Amino acid sequence: MTVAAKVKSITSGLLRRRSADNVEKDQTHDQHVQNDEQEVFLPPLRPVALPKVLPSHQYALSEHGWTTVTYNEPTDNLHEASQALFQASQAFFDLPQSYKETFKTEIGSEEGWSRIEGEKELITLRCLGNTPKELKEAASAYWAEAGGLLNETLGRISESLGLPAKSLTQYSEPCAKLGSEKTATMLRLFRYEGFEGKESKTVAEPHRDLGLLSLVNGDTPGLEVWDRNVQKYYQLERTYARPAGSLLVGRQLERLSNGRYVSGGHLVRSYPEEITSDPTKPPKPSRPYRFSIVFVLRAHSPIPVDTDNLTTSITGPYKNPLRDITANELFSSIQSAHFNINTHIEEREVQRQRLAEQKRQLEETKGENEKAVEYQTVEAV
Ligand SMILES: [Fe+2]
């Protein structure tokens, strides 16, 4: 099934918008508390042309929190940059562990190299200074392409909300290049294990990303996205008949758009064999690894956040207004309410239990503490 077939068109003049609680409730892989049954009637998003997204795939981004990036033909700079980075990434992960360990940091998956046995190895690049020499050239070129695309996409999203492009690109422009200064944005390279064998295995638990937008490129299918209409995961990358990327909405954008763009639930699974589009051909043999490139655009830390400046007739009044905070403070409050799927399994369980206890305590005091809303979910990063 194509993305287009899965997207509900908005044909009426008014869109019946779910309350933020109902948006969360739609994603049953997450646990949420429903506060009220408030419903707000808002106009539809203004039509915009998201770059590199086919017209029939455009609405999926706001409705589901994910869509497909289709490369230009016959050549596409982003696709070429991704192929070069895949090559560099495979060569890097093939290097001895003792060398890769020199890129380990105290902040784990937020920067540098790390390994979660039985699941994956990853390296998170934040600035040139922490980028291995083997990756510098390809990572810089890819960052420039992906950063440029997501910056432009964010501008169109801003316009779809009835705002000037700059209202949202002010958060992304300072992160559009891999430079000497660390920014909130990151480039993560993964080598997932378990792509051999007879059974599917989940190698990244269900979660939603924390930032504004994420762009995922996989060298073999593995990404599955949450379909809110049928309440199931959808094997998005298996639908790609030609190389394509996947675009995901993160929690920061959901907050800044007052839920008009929902964050996209997703997971990564290893499949026992690759399905070919031609049923007369035998399945391709399984591969030991899946490589992926994930560009995570996060709002530039020092930029102030004031939802009064983002309020339009399309966003409607903010359910949880944000004033007098920075993008970094918004990020920290979202991050502290979620456990990190890229930490070791034992540490993940500790984080999960700690957050469940926080949630229980805050539910007891709900109504007394406005910040409780930030802790209503117990989910992964
Ligand atoms: Fe993710």
Automatic annotation (TrEMBL):
<feature type="region of interest" description="Disordered">
    <location>
        <begin position="361"/>
        <end position="381"/>
    </location>
</feature>
<feature type="compositionally biased region" description="Basic and acidic residues">
    <location>
        <begin position="18"/>
        <end position="35"/>
    </location>
</feature>
<dbReference type="InterPro" id="IPR050231">
    <property type="entry name" value="Iron_ascorbate_oxido_reductase"/>
</dbReference>
<feature type="region of interest" description="Disordered">
    <location>
        <begin position="18"/>
        <end position="37"/>
    </location>
</feature>
<feature type="compositionally biased region" description="Basic and acidic residues">
    <location>
        <begin position="361"/>
        <end position="373"/>
    </location>
</feature>
<comment type="similarity">
    <text>Belongs to the iron/ascorbate-dependent oxidoreductase family.</text>
</comment>
<dbReference type="InterPro" id="IPR027443">
    <property type="entry name" value="IPNS-like_sf"/>
</dbReference>
<protein>
    <recommendedName>
        <fullName>Clavaminate synthase-like protein</fullName>
    </recommendedName>
</protein>
